Amino acid sequence: MNKKKLFPLALVPLAATSLQAQSNIQTGRTDKRPNIILFMVDDMGWQDTSLPFWTQKTHYNELYETPNMERLARQGMMFTQAYASSISSPTRCSLMTGCNASRHRVTNWTLRKNTKTDAVSNTLEVPDWNYNGIAQVHGTNNTFIATSFVQLLKDNGYHTIHCGKAHWGAIDTPGESPYHFGFETNIAGHAAGGPATYLSERNYGYDEAGNSTSLFSVPGLEKYWGTGTFMTEALPQEALKALDKAKKYNQPFYLYMSHYAIHVPIDKDVRFYDKYKKKGLSDKEAAYASLIEGMDKSLGDIMDWLEKNGEADNTIVIFMSDNGGYATGSGWRDEPLYTQNFPLKCGKGSAYEGGIREPMIVRWPGTVQPGTRCNDYLIIEDFYPSILEMAGIDDYDVPQEIDGISFVPLLKQTKNPSQGRSLYWNCPNIWGEKGPGIGPSCTIRKDNWKMIYFYETGEKELYDIPNDIEENNNVAALYPQIINKLSKELGKFLRQTNGQRPSFKKTGKPCPWPDEI
Prior knowledge:
Elements: E1 2-5, H1 14-27, E2 35-41, H2 59-63, H3 67-75, E3 77-83, H4 88-97, H5 101-104, E4 124-125, E5 134-135, E6 144-145, H6 149-155, E7 159-164, E8 185-187, H7 231-247, E9 253-258, H8 273-277, H9 283-308, E10 315-321, H10 353-356, E11 357-363, E12 372-374, E13 378-379, H11 383-390, E14 395-398, H12 408-412, E15 422-427, E16 441-446, E17 449-454, E18 460-464, H13 480-496, E19 503-504
Parallel strand pairs: 2-9, 2-10, 3-12, 3-13, 5-6, 7-8, 7-9
Antiparallel strand pairs: 1-14, 3-11, 4-19, 10-11, 15-16, 16-17, 17-18
Helix pairs in contact: 3-9, 7-9
C-alpha cells in the first residue's frame, strides 16, 4: 500500500478562504472545500484555439474562435509546457491512477477485451501490455489495479459526476464503467475512445430500433436522438442538469467534463459551420473549426452556470487535452486531417512535442493570480495529487505507487517542484504505420533537454526544447555526455517501474534499453 502525504488545504491563502466563505453563505453549504471541474478535450492540437500558448499568435490563433478559453485564461493561469501521453488511454489512465504509463502499462488505446490495438510490424513484436486497461479490483488479466483519485474524493464527501468520454478499460472489464472508479453519476461514458458520430440525426451511432451500429456508439443520450442536437451540445446540457442536482446536496462536487470532441469523425456543428465557410475554409476545415468552437461554447455554458448559481468564487476549473491533434501522415483512416499543433512537430502517437504538449489553463479564485502564465513543465500524472491537495485530502492509502507531483505550488507561485525534475514517457507500442516519430519509443525531458530513443533502430535524438520548440535541430552528436546521462536515467526509471519494451521478431530478443546502446 502506498500512503501519500499532501499539503492540507489550510495552506490556501486567506483571500481564497474569504471568497469561499462568502460563496458558502450564499449557497448554504457547511463544507467549505472548493468544487472542482476538470474540462478535458480529446485530441486537441496546441494551436486549435484563438488563445496562443506560444510566445506569439499564429495564423491558426487568428482563424479559430474560442472566446471562452480566452475568458478562462483571463481569470486564471495558462500553462505553456503541460504534457500528457501521445495516445488517449495512457493519458487518461495516468490521470486516474497518478502513475506514469511505464508503470501502469496501458501504453496504447484500449477497446476490445483481450485484444491489442497495435498496428502490425514486420520487425517488432509488442510486449504483453495492459490492453484491458485499469481496474479497482483484481480478477481481470492485463489490467493495472489502482484506486482513482475520484474514489478518494467521493469517500471524502465530494459528489462526483462523469460526463462524456471515459476510455480507461476494455469492453466487459471493470475499467469500462466510470461507476467503478468512484463516479456517482455517469453520462455517456463507456469503453470506446471516440464517437461513431456527433449527429443526433444518426442517433449518435444507434439505429431506429435502438441497436448499436458501432463499438463507438455513444450511450445514454436517447432523449436527443433526431432532435438536431449536436453531441457537443447535448453533453454539457446533461452536465448542467447534473450540476443543478448537485447543488441541492450542499456538498462540494467534482465534475469531469470529458468531451469526445474534437476526436474524429469530423462532423459539422451547424451552429458554427457557416461562419468558417465564410472565412474561406474548405468543408472539412470548416467542420473541424466548428467542432472546436462547439467545445468552447460548452466551456462558456459551464462557467455561466457557476456565475448564475453563486458557485464561481468557490470552484476550481481546469482545462486540459489528452494528447496532441492528429498530424497529416499519421496513418489514421488515410484521410486529410485539419488539426494544428504548429509550431510543434508531428502529432498524436508521436514522441515529438506535437504529440505530447497540451493546452492547459487553471482558474482558482483567490489562489491563482488572474491573467498569468506558467512556463514550468508538468505531466498528466501530476493531476492526481494536485486535485487531492485542492480538495484538502492529505492522507490516503492506495495500492499503487504515485509518480505524480502536485503542481499546486506552481498555481500559488511559491516554488517550482519541476526544477531539476525529469519527465518520462514509454510507448513500446505501434500506434500508427507511418509518420515522423510514430513508433515504439521512450523519452525523457530534463530541464531544457529532451531525448527520444527509438526501440527499433536504437537511434537517439536530442533537442534543446526552449530554444528549438520545433525540434528541427537534433544535437545528439554534439552532446554525447548529455545523451549518456539521460540514457542512464531513463533506463533506470524504466526498470524501476517495470516498464516494457518490444522484441525483434527475427531473434525473439528484446530491444535494448536506452542505456544499453
